[in-house]
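Table S2 (text version). Query chain:
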Amino acid sequence: MSGHSKWSTIKRKKGALDAKRGRTFTKIIKEIQVAAKMGGGDEDANPRLRTAIQAAKAANMPLINVERAIKKGTGELEGTVYEEINYEAYGPGGVAILMESMTDNKNRTVSEIRHILSRAGGNLATAGSVAYNFEKKGIITVDKKVCTEDDLLLIVTDAGAEDLTIEGEFFEVSVEPHSFEAVKSALNASSIPIVEASVTMVPKNTVKLDEKTAQKILSLMDALEEHEDIQNVYGNFDIDDAVLSKLQENA
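Corresponding structure-token output:
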């Protein structure tokens, strides 16, 4: 597989996109609260909040939940205070793992993350030992059925995109974070529907995994994503389509 967002691509291929509605809502609500706390409750003036609200709409979250989360973030309503903390780790095969969390009890969170890692043969790493291998990028996914590669390339390049790659049935557009909103707006203006859009952490280098290690890593990534305090998990691994297909067959 080629492209920028290995873990998101693998999740899409293996059908492991977050299917648990309650957990999805919890993560989005946390993001809305923190975004509102940091940048205010006006989504027009707060890109992070605007992106979180769009995620809430895509998940069919009731509007009242969104409004309540914003008010808790701005202090208009009482609510839990969340702290943003990144954790770094190594998994089986030496895979570097970066986790973004929001927690109201960091001692509990780090203890539970350490337990998940140890069961899978991984371990927490010191700050900075993993993060250097990742860089922040905007990744926008478009279905190949809705437009040609040439048309899409022209639109996103003019709006400031860096690169366009093909991932199976999808185009993946890579942009610097400061151009993320401009590229999304250009696609919306051209009536090109967006499948997924997020500012994510992309590995600079990846580790190719064999079938046995791939199974361990995928199980570990799923377990970490299941944790209620972890918002996002990133790994610097790559899995061949043939290996991924075999794992799906054996699942």
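Notes on Table S2: Strands lie at 83-90, 96-103, 123-124, 134-143, 163-167, 170-175, 196-203, 207-208, 230-235, 237-238. The domain at 134-203 is CATH 3.30.70.980 (Alpha-Beta Plaits).
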